[in-house]
Give the backbone structure.
Amino acid sequence: MSAATALGEDLATYNFAYLDEQTKRMIRRAILKAIAIPGYQVPFASREMPMPYGWGTGGVQVTASIIGPQDVLKVIDQGADDTTNAVSIRAFFQKVANVAVTTKTREATIIQTRHRIPEEKLQAGQVLVYQVPIPEPLRFLEPRETETRKMHALEEYGLMHVKLYEDIARHGHIATTYAYPVLVAGRYVMDPSPTPKFDNPKMDMSDALQLFGAGREKRIYAIPPHTRVVSLDFEDHPFEIQSFDEPCALCGAEGVYLDEVILDDRGGRMFVCSDTDHCEDRRAAGHRGHLSPDEAYAGHGKGEGEAAR
Amino acid sequence: MTMLDETPLLSVERLSRYYGERVGCRDVSFQVYPGEVLAIVGESGSGKTTLLNCISTRLEPSAGSVSYRMRDGAMRDLYRMSEAERRLLMRTDWGFVHQNPADGLRMTVSAGANVGERLMAVGERHYGRIRDTATRWLSRVEIAADRIDDQPRAFSGGMRQRLQIARNLVTGPRLVFMDEPTGGLDVSVQARLLDLLRGLVNDLGLAAIVVTHDLAVARLLSHRMIVMKDGRVVEEGLTDRVLDDPQAPYTQLLVSSILQV
């Protein structure tokens, strides 16, 4: 392969991007089909990867099949660039594809993600690769695969609303907060992987290509750019995203998805951006939250006092 | 009850179903008219359930045809429809009451959702309206309104069966298939269920095909009956006539075998 030769000795022990060329062709065919039928789950012959199922084997295979030597890769896990899963996958591709890696959303051409969509709006030409544990949105309602495939084929999606109905009956509102089902291009109901429903609106009419890989379940699906993605709801219980009472404690951002961080064993906690790159960017630009280090030093005791309460 | 409509709702022509060399049912023909309840009786293994499954599109027949009069009045051959049309028919215009309620219910979702599922399947997207309809139907089948959020797992056998009936009738079907609807229930619960079914069939003007081996159930529910033996129809006629004056030897045997209390 020309790419491999161009890269020289670094790649002596692996085929470019780990998978063999035949496998990559097979996966690319599945990806093309998935793009052609937005939201449809395309079966593919998922390979054993050097990591356990549930750690992103599907996403890694998709990434390996689309990545080229010029690509710049970003990997996030729950929005963070520095967690174990993200660091390992990034290191994996540095080793087997020798590609440039980044933590900056806007510099990346491929972003592999587990459970988040970056806060920064994605651009045309970028590809977002999701790691998907359970691709079938109807699975917990209908255990038979033969039946769920038929339901997709015949567009019988009443059952999906049964799940939402149950939520309202039990909790008074739609309590599903992640893996919130969406209707893609007015046809297929799709599981957006366990991203918080906060991110669902970002999938709609996105400029970027979105690919979903489920390694254990052997399915690939896709949302092409500029595709309608609608979250399911009831007329009298419309879809809503999560909102937070306070801004990010480090960068002061509002309207972003926050993680709760426990500070001590006396009930102290703070809420910070789940998207670490977004948070760092804002701090670099001078934004401050009420617990950012410099302020905490300046107004010593403020953060502590709150934590003690 | 009102005078029966002249054109049949369901027409079965020379229906046969073979399992390899064995016969499930052979050469069965009959019609069901709107508002009519037809009982199919016979001993175990006589082909009742095979016949029911064939006419309710759950099992493809080996020969013969089943046609159904759609809401627009056109007779359509069920096995020439697309699968999508058949399934739509099954969940809107038809109902299927299983002997074992667990086969016809979703045991892990609430009673309200069980009743509401068909409404959602035909496009209802208003929670309040779905819940109102579900509440109304539960009271109609004598399930207390405060059980609406309980799962059928927490229901007794009789309640489950009634819930299954509500779930099937909520879309206002014109034809309901019932496979031993009172099987496995004790007699007092059976009696209440039969009462309820009779009331609903009368109120809604439903046509129903009831498979049962219990002649008393057939007597109570049905207007007409078909007696099956070894996959064939041996006798057919008005229920009272068949039970009071059985003609075929097998029917005579069947009627005389009823235990007297």
